[in-house]
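Weekly sync, protein design subgroup
Attendees: M.S., D.O., the rotation student, P.L. (late)

Item 1: inverse folding check
M.S. brought a backbone from last month's batch and wanted to see whether the design step gives back something sensible before we order anything. D.O. pointed out we never logged the input encoding, so this time it goes straight into the notes. Structure tokens as presented (302 positions):
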């Protein structure tokens, strides 16, 4: 290679490195990406993400897609076909954590641990348009995330955009007592502290023990998401959905705190909801009436 070739090569590399540096900074500085990374860090800080546990996805708004588009790869990955089509998500873009990543590391290198995927015009295939550098892939729970996005987008009239999955100890412990019984689980949580019925008058769903990342887990989650914004995976963890990152982290936190209280009360009195001053069915109805909440009345036990 001659001097001029060397110089051109140097220049090309420099220009593309500079472009890369600018685009890295830019996408990571977008509000939705900062909020995404912050939720991952907050969940890790809370102790909900041992090892590579948990994952997060976000459905971008049209405006965010338009603002991010100039940073997309000029050559996206090839399309990956799924065994089902999410027709109401066709053409949508999702930021999503990578398979095997540790949530505590997401904020340190978003272009590696987060990717933006695009769904094709049928909603049946996806490809990577940004991130997942070094060959990363979306989380093993991609199907569950897309199922949740699809259902929650429909039942909330397009408002729901965030799906967050974590492994909080007390919620997993509680699921061992309640099993996949949404009514029993909801009662346990409502009775733990007054905030619960305010945050989730509709209750919390529960899905039986299933293989992580399986189609079975995804399809059972879909059914539960028809009714509930948050769903417990028995012996596994918790999924919360909602419009924004703070709302979803808040919902997750309230459920975890209630489960913590149940565990702490059980340690104190040896019988969690039988504690002398646990909230009663009447207490829960009174809160719902006072705030005109759509309480799932058939779940309330006396
Ligand atoms: O991403 O939490 O459910 C790892 C998991 C699988
Ligand atoms: Zn998990």
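Designed sequence read out in the meeting:
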């Amino acid at each position: 290679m001659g001097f001029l070739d060397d110089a051109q090569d140097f220049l090309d590399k420099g220009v593309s490195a500079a472009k890369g540096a600018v685009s890295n900074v830019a996408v990571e500085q977008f509000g939705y990406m900062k909020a995404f990374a912050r939720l991952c860090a907050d969940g890790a800080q809370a102790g909900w993400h041992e090892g590579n546990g948990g994952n997060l996805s976000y459905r971008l708004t049209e405006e965010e897609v338009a603002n991010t588009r100039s940073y997309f790869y000029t050559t996206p990955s090839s399309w990956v076909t799924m065994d089902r089509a999410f027709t109401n998500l066709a053409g949508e873009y999702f930021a999503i954590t990578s398979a095997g990543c540790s949530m505590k590391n997401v904020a340190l290198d978003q272009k590696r641990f987060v990717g933006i995927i695009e769904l094709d015009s049928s909603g049946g295939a996806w490809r990577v348009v940004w991130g997942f550098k070094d060959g990363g892939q979306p989380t093993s729970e991609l199907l569950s995330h897309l199922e949740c996005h699809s259902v929650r987008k429909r039942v909330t009239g397009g408002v729901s955009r965030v799906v967050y999955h974590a492994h909080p100890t007390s919620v997993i412990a509680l699921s061992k007592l309640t099993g996949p019984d949404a009514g029993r689980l909801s009662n346990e949580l409502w009775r733990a502290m007054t905030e619960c019925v305010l945050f989730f008058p509709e209750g919390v769903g529960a899905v039986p023990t299933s293989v992580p990342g399986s189609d079975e887990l995804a399809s059972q989650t879909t059914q539960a998401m028809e009714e509930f914004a948050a769903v417990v995976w028995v012996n596994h963890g918790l999924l919360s959905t909602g419009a924004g990152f703070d709302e979803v982290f808040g919902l997750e936190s309230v459920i975890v705190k209630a489960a913590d209280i149940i565990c702490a009360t059980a340690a104190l009195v040896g019988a969690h909801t039988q504690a002398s001053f646990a909230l009663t069915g009447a207490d829960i109805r009174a809160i719902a009436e006072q705030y005109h909440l759509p309480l799932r009345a058939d779940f309330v036990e006396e």
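Discussion: Residues 3-140 form a domain with the L-fuculose-1-phosphate Aldolase fold (CATH 3.40.225.10). The CA atoms of residues 168 and 213 lie 18 Å apart.
Action: P.L. to compare against the previous round before Friday.
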